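Hi all, long-time lurker, first post. I run a small reading group and we've been trying to get comfortable going from sequence to structure in the token notation. Rather than ask abstract questions, I figured I'd post a concrete chain and ask someone more experienced to write out its structure so we can walk through it together at our next meeting. Sequence below, copied exactly:
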Amino acid sequence: MHKQNLFCILFIIFLSSACGGGGGGSSDNTPSITGTGSGSGSGSGSGGGTTTNANNACVVGNTGAPEVLQQKMWPHYSSDQFASRYIDSDKLDKNNYTNLTIAWTWEAPSEKFMDENPTLVANRNAATPIMVDGVLFTTSQFNHVNAINAETGNTIWEFDPVSYSQGQAVNHGFIHRGLAYWEKDGEKRLLIGTLDGFLYSLDACTGEVDLQFSNGGKVDLKDGLGVAVTDNLLFGINAPPLVCKDTVVVGSSIIDWPDGSNWLPPGDVRAYDIITGQLKWQFHVIPHEGEFGEDTWENDSNLNAAGANVWSTFSCDESLNTVYLPTSTPTNDHWGGDRLGDGLFGETIVALDIDTGERKWHFQTVHHGLWDYDLPAAPNLVNVTTSNGVEKLLAQVSKQAFLYVFDRETGQPKWPIVETPVPQTNEVGEQTSSTQPIPSKPLPFDHQGVNLDNLIDFTPSLRSQALDIISQWDYGDLYTPPTKRGTLTVPSITGGASWSGATYHPDKNILYVPSGTFPFVTSIERSGLQTLQNRDYVHGPQGLPLMKPPYARITAISMETGEHVWVSAVGRNYENSAALSGVTINGDLGAIQRVHAITTKNLLITGQQRLTAFDLDTGEKIGEISVPNSVVEGNLMAYELNDKLYIIVPVGGGESSRGPKSQLIAYKLN
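-- Answer (accepted) --
Happy to help. Here is the structure in token form:
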């Protein structure tokens, strides 16, 4: 996630959000709301300044919602509470995919805001909208919340919580991924976690704060953690919460580079009553004294431990009354000498009762994590139809390129997961786990470890140069621990799988898993009472990647058999390299950028350098659609509205300087 001297990712712009999210400065400033309904088809939201709101997203009209005669909604960040990223639409197929055209482009309020505040720079435009009743709801990097007419792209209203007022946000700065929606008995609410550590409830129709929710419409999430969070760079929220029944569940983003420091907060997961904003339960991801799992922390190290937060997203099965948590590495990401032991509930899938927060089952995917192998995305909840009936499964993608599959009611693995001996540390003060849990099925969906078999080998010369490069560091099998010299790690802190997650097609019983190959070298250095971690991407010879292709891919995995159905490369960048002159290249090699994916009834669609459609059964590339002036920066979403299919693509944003304009591009099939 984060380290002392530089962010996770150093050389490729997309990677700046690979390891988690950002938090930010707290503010008592009055939030503002702006009504801007006169926007055109390329509408842009305006930065707030007024507390009035002239427009209503629940009223049909020129400044409000479209008339809805037919729709298929996308009401959750990942389409549904199961994190399927699937829409049951048959409008798009291999014969008409390339007929998609841009219907409208919406400019995020981040752009005008940065014009007015040039010292503040937005990170990637990573927010994915939701769509309900013909209206899109989304967030900006600076936490503006917007309602947008899903047919025209016109802004209906805008809410500004002023979460940026104290300056830079935690970890990756100003970046945000979305919000959640709730509706019951005519009441409609939006739930948003902000970079300065608040949870807001807004009226989805008007954008006004719901004053009945907690203390004037917001909960201060910095309270109740057992540690006074006084530095705005330590804690914040940049991912959407989850609505499950009448409960909203929220995680956090926490700085991760110091070791065992008592001034950093734990990553407790909390649940609130959506109507009142009252706390329903708080799950201690780092067990308190006397709680289950305390014995996995040696020398009472749990008392001062931090992190193990859920910076990504959650999933929920209301029929089982269960919410599922994908947790992260306890602080420090790469040094565990101050937190010896397996360290529950770090890097663990945790199933909790949604009403009480009581633990139902858990599975730790990494013991005593030293690799920043946070569980990066919500578990996919999949119903697999077989001749024996319906299996209710949970499939968890991971940075380390394993897919962990369980009965989601009992927590029993669908296929055996075997505790397997792994390489051990020689660093004084560190104590690695002797084994790690290795799934017998499915096989890994990306490279694991660094060896002679997975290095680049287009030519003998390139292979020789690659061997020279890796000779600078320690390397070996998966779970080779970090060293002072530096350990070359594949998969790295960026995955493998990423926060883009996976998509499930219920008719195919197939999970489609995006992944990328990003070798990093990690070195550790003790300095007084702290351990510094240095992490750098490792390039291959002559401008090529270090490993064998594909460098980004989709792996189709049968949830019935556990077998890989097919693997296809996503993106291209190196095919015409001078270093490959005379080498026959068949197809794409993949591009080193995150892959986002959704499924429709007939197609798998990926977002990366462009929008690419693949055959669901074979992985054959069907067609490509260009993305103007940028690459895809957030998860895709889709909806039907009045018998037309729309695909929404988040693009733009920067890192240390302004990048392409932050926009939503709406592609439409007439």
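A couple of things your group might point at:
The longest helix spans residues 460-470.
Helices lie at 110-116, 460-470.
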